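Hi L., both proteins are below.
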Amino acid sequence: MTRFKFAIINLMLLALLTIIAMGILSRALNVGYVALPFAAFFLLTDLVDIRTRRLRMVTNFAGAIPFVVFVNPFTLPFLAGIVALLKKPVSKEFTISRRLYRGLQYFVMYGTAALLVDWSWNPYLCLVVFAIAAKVVNFLLSDVVFLLMTDRPVISKASLTASIIELSYFLVLGVAGGLMWTLNDAGFRTETALVFLSFPLVLILLRFYGDFRTTSHEREEYIKSMNSLKYKLSKLLEMISFLRTNPDFEKSLNRIAAGVRDHLGYNYCLISMLDRRKNQVRRIAHAGLKEEDFRQMQENAPPLRFVEQFIEEKYRISRSYFVPEGSAAIETVYSFRGEYQNLIEEESAWRPGDVLIIPIWKSNEIVGYISVDAPTSGRRPSFEDIELLEIVADQTLRIIEESRTMDELLKATKMDMATGLYTHTEFYSFVSRLAEDGKQRFSIIMIDIDNFKKVNDSFGHIVGDRLIEAFADTIRTVLRKEDFAARYGGDEFAVVIANASKRDAITIAQRLIDRLRLIQVDDAKVSVTCSMGIAEFPVDDPTGAGVVAKADKALYTAKKTGKNKIYVM
C-alpha cells in the first residue's frame, strides 16, 4: 500500500515539477562558471547530517542562500533535485520511489519558493520570503504528506519542535543572505566574504545544538528507563513472593502471565511447554488474549519446528531470542497477532511481525518458553527488559518442576520424536547408570536395518520414515517392561536386556528378527531384514561405554559378513 501511495504522490509531484519548470526554465539557463564553486558548496552542505531526536534537518539551505545570491535562484531547484536523486538513501525500503520522491520534493520546495518571490524587492525581504516559502513547502511534503504515505503519526511533538527550529535557522540564513547581497552590491568584497563564512558557522552551531538535544533526550530516556526498571523489579519481587506461597500450578502460571502483562509492559503474554513425545507445543497459560483465541491456539498446537526456527544463534540476545519482522517465515495458522495501538516511528519501534522468545531452560534443555507481544511502550525490549523476562522464566521453571506436567514433559525430552523410543543420549546415560551400579548383569543388542537406503531410494522417504516407526513399534512389543530401547541413529537401534546373559539376549534377538520380517508399510511390499550385535556386561567389558563399543563392533562384524544375522562377542 505504501509503495502505491509513493507512486501516486510522485506522479503528482512530477506534474507540479512540470508546471514549475515551465515557469523557471528559461531563467534557469542564465548561469556561468561562477556557479561551480557555489554548487560545490551546496553539495557539501547537503552532506552534513544534523538531527534532532532522529529527525534530519535540511542542511543544504546553508548552501542554497549563497547560490541564490551569487548565481541564480531559478537554477537552484534543478541543482537540489539532481543532488537529492544521486544521494544514497539511508533506508533500503523502496529505494527508487523514495529517492525519486526526495528529488522531486527538493525541486518543488526551491522551485515554488523561487516563483513566489519578486526578485526586484529589497534583498532582505526577498530572502526572508524565500526562506518561509521553502520551509512551508518542506513541512507539507516532508512532515505531512510523507508521514501520511507511510501510515505514521502526522505531527509528533518532536517533529513540530524540529520544524520550528528549522524555520528559525532558515530565517537567520535568509537575513544573513540579505546582508551578504547588500554588501556585495555595494562593492564591499571583504565584508561579503566574512558574512559568507557565517553560513558554515551557522551549520556548526546547529550541529552542536542537534547533538545537545540528542544527548539530553538520551539522558531523559535513560532516567525514565531506570525508573521503569526499578518499578518492574519491585513488581517482579511481589510476584515471586506470591508464587512461593501458592501451590496451584495453573493459577500460578496465569498469575505469571498477568504479571508480565501488567507490570513488565506487554499487552500479550503466552506461556508454552514443549511436548517432545507428541512433537507439539502445548499452550499452558496466557494474559491479554481472548479466551476463544487462547482455546483455538490450544487446539491448533503447532509442531516443535514452529518454535525451533526461532532458536538460532543469529537471533540470540542473552539467553533469549529476538526475531525482527521479516527475518523468518512465520506460519500464521499457529500464531496470534493482536491489536497494535502504540506503534511509533523509531528505529527501535516494535513491529507487528517481531517475535520474542524467552526459553524456560532446565540445564541445557529448553522445556518451554514465554512469548510476549505488543509492548506498551511501542519499543522493542532493551537488554535489561529481556533479562527481567528471563528472571520470570526461571521462576516459571520452579513452578512447573513441581507439577505432573513437568514430569511428563521432562520424560518427553528424553524421547525420540519420530519413534517414541529413548534418544541416543538417554541410552548412554541409562547404560552408564546400570554399569556404575554394578548390581546386575545386562546384555546389549545393537540393531541395524539392512539396505535401508535402498528402501528410501525405491519407495521414497515417507515409506522409509513409516518403516522406522513400524520397526520401533515391533521392538516395543517384544521387550519386557524392565528392558530399555532407544533409537541409536538414523536406522540403527539399541536395546538393553535387563538381568540377561548373552544366551537370553540371543533368544530375544531371534524373536525380534522373526517379528521384524512381518513388517508391512501401507501397501508397499517392503522386504526387511536386519543385522544384530550382542555383548554382555560385565563379561565382555566392565564399563558401560566399553560394553556398548563391543556390541557395536559385533554389529559391524554381522554387517561385514553378509548381513541378516546375529553376531555375538
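That was the first. Here is the second:
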Amino acid sequence: MAFISIITSKALASPTMAPQSCTPRAFGSSTVQTVTSFPGDTNQTSPLPPSTCDYWTLPISRIGKEGSCVSQGNGPTFLLFEFWRLDANGAVDTRPLEDVHVLVARGTQPNVLVYDVNDLLYQPPLSVRPYDISSNRSTLRDADAALFWRPYHRIVASYNASSNSSGSSSTEPGSSDWFVTVSNLDRNSSSFTYALRVSCVNETTAPCPRPLPSAGQCSDRGTCVAPPQGVASPALTRVCKCDPGRGDYGCQTAVPLLANGAVVTRAIEPNGWAFWQLRVPLPPDSVKPSLLVELSRSPVGFGPALGGFGPEATGTASTSAGFGGDPVLVVMPKDPNGSNRLPWFSDLNSNNNIADLRSYFLQQNLHYVLTRNLIAGVSTDDGWAAEYYVAVHNNRQRFTGDAQNAALLYPQANVTIRVRWSTGSGPALCPNDCYGGGTCHDPWGANSTSLPASIFPAFPAGVSNPPGPPDFMCGCTAGRGGRLCEGRIANMTLPSGERDAAGALAPGQWSFSVLSLDPAGFSYARDTVAIRWRVIDGSPDPAAKYSNAYLTIDENAFPRDAVLDSNDPFRRGWQIFYSSLAQRSDPPVPLQLRGSDLKPGLRYVLGMYNSDYTRKITFNYSLSVGSVGSIRPSVWLVLASLAALCILIV
C-alpha cells in the first residue's frame, strides 16, 4: 500500500473528475506558431495560463537547410527539443512544475487528455521506443520530467521518424513537419513563460541534461559520462557525474556531503525540500555494516529529553517557535542507472523502505532510517562504497487548519540531522541511543548470542507479514518500553477484573500498556475487550479540540513496528484520536475489541501519545480495560476487522 497520496497535492484531485484538456491559444489568425530560432532559443514571453496550451511547428524544410542536421558520417541525426520554465526576470524558475506536458510529434499536433492523475490519453499514442530511427507514428515526451515535476524537459527524436500523415504543409492536418505542444494543466498553478530550444545532434554530440539554459551540460558543475551498462541508447542518454557537493540529474542542486558522525541543522519552509549525500565505505563481506540517519524536529536535538526523560527535558521536550513542521525523512541509494536524481514524492511510499512513514504518521519528534543492506555503488581508492541521498520534505498537505484537520503550531520545519555508520568496529547503532532507557544490541554483531528476550510470543504459523529479523534491538530497563525504549510501560492481564492506568503525559511522551488475555477466563468467541479512555488538559477548550492525544492498538508489536501495508488492521495498527471520539460523544463511548477479531496467545499494545504537532500542553489521562460477556452496554465504539474505523450502535 503506497502512501504518496497522503503527501502529494495530486491526491487532492478527484478520481472521477471530468476529462481535462487544454484550450489552444490563438496568436493572430492561427493557433499554431512557428519556432522562430532554429537552431537556438525561442522565448515565449506571453505567460501561459492554466488549462491552456501553445502549439508550435518546425517545418521540415527549415530543418533540411541547417548544416548540423545533415549527416556528417557520425551516425543518425536526432532532433533535441529542450524546454525551460522561466520566472518574471527571464531566468529559470527552479520550482517544481506539476501537470505541465511538453509533447513532440511528427506530422500532427500532439495532445493529452487527463481522466485522473494516473489515467492520461495521448494522441498520437506515446512512443515505446523514442530513440529508434524506425519509431512508429507517436507522441514523445520526457517521462522523468513529468514524473519528478521538473521545470526542464529534454526530448530526443529521430530525424527520420515516421510521419503521422502524408501532408506536405504544416497548414494541413498531418505533414512531415515537427510539432510541439506545451500544455499547462495544473489548475492550481499560475501562468508562466518559457523557452524552447531545438537543435540537431548525433550520438557523438548529444549533450547531457542542461537544466540551466545559460550554462553548459551538467550545469557546468559536473562531467558528462556514459551511463551504466544495460541502459537503452547509451549514446543519447549520457549522465552527469557531479562535482563534489553537487547533485541531481543535471548537477544543478547543492547537496552537501556528510561525514560519519555529522550533525547539521536546516530550516525548511512548507512544501520545501532539503538534501544531503553520503558515501559509506563498505567492509569485507563477512561484516554486516549499519547506516543510521536520524531527524529531530525538537529544539532539544537528540537524547533522553527528546522523549521527555531527564531533568533537562523540563519545559523543553515540546517544540518551540522555529521548530516543528511536518517532515518526512528519506534515505535513498543513488539511482543505479546513473541519473543522480534526487528523492521525490514518488519515493514516499511503504514499499521501498527508504522513507520513515511510521514516524510521519505517528507525528513523532524523532524520525530515522536504519539500513543494514548497503549496496556497493562506486569504487574508491580505499575500496567500494555505497552512495546515498538524504532528503527531508516538509509536507503542507496534512494539517490544513480546517474543520477536519487542526493547523500546525509551527509550519516551518527546523530539523537536526545526525548521520552515523558502522563498518565492523565501534558500538552498535540504535536510534536516539534507546532514549537513554536501555542498551543497544546488534543482532548481527559479536553480542548476538546475548540479545534481550522479546516480550511478545512468537507468531503462529500462517500469519501474514511475519516480522523479519531486526536490524537493531534496544534492551529496555525496568519500567521502560517501546521499540526504542521511548515510553513507560505496564502490563495488563484479563479477565482478572478491570485494569486501570492513569497519569500525565507531557508533549512528546509515550505510555504503553501491554494487554494479555487469559484463555482460562476469556472466551475469544463470545467475549469482548472494553476500553474506557479519558483525557483532560485543564484548558478551557472542549475535548473535540484535543488533537494532540491519540491511542494506538497494535498486535504483538509496538507502534513503531506496525506493518503499514498489512491487510490485517491489527498488524497495520490502529491510531485513534481523542478529538475524533469527542466529536461524537463527550466523554467518548467505550471502545470495543471483539474477541473474535483477536488472535489467541498474542499480546496487544495500547499506546498513548501526546503529539506537539498541533497542540502543546500536558494532559492527564485514565485508561480502564476490562472484559465483557455476551451482554453488552447499549452504545459502543467497535473496532472491527475493517480498514477503517466503524461506528456500530448495538
